[in-house]
Amino acid sequence: MPGSLAPPCLVWHRTDLRVHDHAAVTAAAAASRGHVIGVLCIPEDAFGSVELARGLCLPRASECRVGHWLQAIDGLRADWRSIGSALCVLRGEPEQVIPKLVADLGAIEVHTAPCPAHDELMQNRRVARALADRGTRLVTHDETTMIAAADLPFPIEELPEVFSNFRRLVERSCKTPEPVPALTSLDVPASTREWSEATSDATLSGADLRRARIAALQRDPRAPSTARGERAAGLERMQQWIWQDDCLARYKETRDGLLGADFSSRLSTWLATGTISPREVAAQIRRYERERVANDSTYWLWFELLWRDYFHLWVRRWQSRAFAASGMMGRTPCGRQDVDAFERWRSGTTGEPFVDACMHELAATGWLSNRGRQNAASWLAKTAGVDWRWGAWWFESQLLDHDVGPNWGNWQYVAGVGNDPRNRTFNVRAQAERYDTDGAYRRTWG
Predict the structure, then answer these.
(1) Is residue 331 within 8 Å of residue 323, measured between CB atoms?
(2) 3-state secondary structure string across 147-178
(3) CA distance 162 to 379
């Protein structure tokens, strides 16, 4: 094990796979005079399962989703190299492997910035206790939202229960901050960098991870594009969609599309893993408005970033109730434990052509439009009356852009146990006729 010239700080990555616009990286560099090393833990059961009912086990993540995450990790490793450090990728539970790494490197602090949902907070506590036993502390940062919780005009415990009320308060009182300038260089000994690279190479050579990489490269010929997970791919997509093709200028008119690559930005893929930050997207919107046009469409993309903020704050506010059958409002849920109905839904054999097409696209690509997600969720929770949490788990396992707050918050919303005061049900046939008038989507994915 190499030594370093001075005690380093570690940056523990989870849903923040970048070094740009990253307060934890900046703070760790300041605390250690540039002796900063990244660390990321891949669980031994990366392909584990969760048992929802007798006869129903779902994977925690599909091979394709894990492979996409590994691509993001590859990009993160390259970014750490570019500023003179390295990312150390380890296999195992964080509360076991991070304290050992701290001891081996003599680290003085560990900085981290995950989405502060229930499981992540429990994990933070376990790691903090293990680090405290070694005389090291865990420092957490708020990195997942466009507007930090500390800048809101109310405490997180008073988060409005309806988004429109939240939006009015935020629009009146808050400004979207500029991205934090990226570090250009760190001072990490070559021996530490080389050891970290070798350790990461060994970790990432596992047979199950190699299979996941292959799965992530597969492309269904019906899919309009395949998004790679690296930050560079997200930046390229942002440049192409906003600046080269001017799709932002007409986004409000195209956002309910079903077929094609450009009716939506698809930036959620990189926002979910944190390879790009919402502040970086917001900065591009502001620049576009200054240099080209400001209209309802440019506002609408910012509006959807604010929706994303809301659900991240929502899962922070409600914690375990974000995952409870009765939801954050404690209402009576749609909760039939019907495994057969659920299996028909997830396999796309319900007999409802629009819903089936949605589920086929999701399984084949790890992607589904917002319109498709709402209709598929409504059919399961309201029409079939099946436990909405099963659907949320399935989306979590399949979506390349799975983001815990938006996924579980939207499922509660659709199931009628969350933030929708109207408790609506989608008429999927009417929706199909409105948004898939010529049936092209149903023919493509049916």
Answers:
(1) no
(2) CCHHHCCCCHHHCCCCHHHHHHHHHHHCCCCC
(3) 23
Fold of 324-445: DNA Cyclobutane Dipyrimidine Photolyase, subunit A; domain 3 (1.10.579)
DSSP string for residues in 185-238: -----HHHHHHHHHHHHHHTT-HHHHHHHHHHH---TTSS-----SHHHHHHHH
- Sheet arrangement for strand 137-140: 87-91, 36-42, 9-13, 109-112, 137-140
Query: Torsion angle, CA of 353/356/360/361, rounded to 10 degrees?
Result: 70
For 381, which DSSP code? I
Mean pLDDT of 290-309: 98
Give me the DSSP letters along 61-127.
S-HHHHHHHHHHHHHHHHHHHHTT--EEEEES-HHHHHHHHHHHHT-SEEEE-----HHHHHHHHHH
Convert the pLDDT of each residue in 110-141 to its tens digit.
Answer: 999 998 999 999 999 999 999 999 999 999 99
Q: Does the structure show a pLDDT above 50 at 1?
A: no
Q: The tokens of 293 are what? A: 């046009």
Tokens 């660390």 belong to 39
Give dist(CA 261, CA 222) in Å, integer: 11
Phi-psi region of 426 (alpha: psi -120 to 50; beta: other; left: phi over 0): beta
> What is residue 165's predicted lDDT score, i.e. its pLDDT?
96
Write out 344-362 in H/E/C secondary structure: HHHHCCCCCHHHHHHHHHH
Instruction: Locate the domains of the chain by residue range.
Output: 324-445
Predicted structure pTM score? 0.96
Q: What is the CB-side half-sphere exposure of residue 23 using CA atoms within 13 A?
A: 15
Averaged pLDDT, 335-362: 97
Q: What is the pLDDT of residues 162-220, one digit of tens each?
A: 999 999 999 999 999 999 988 999 999 999 999 999 999 999 999 999 999 999 999 99
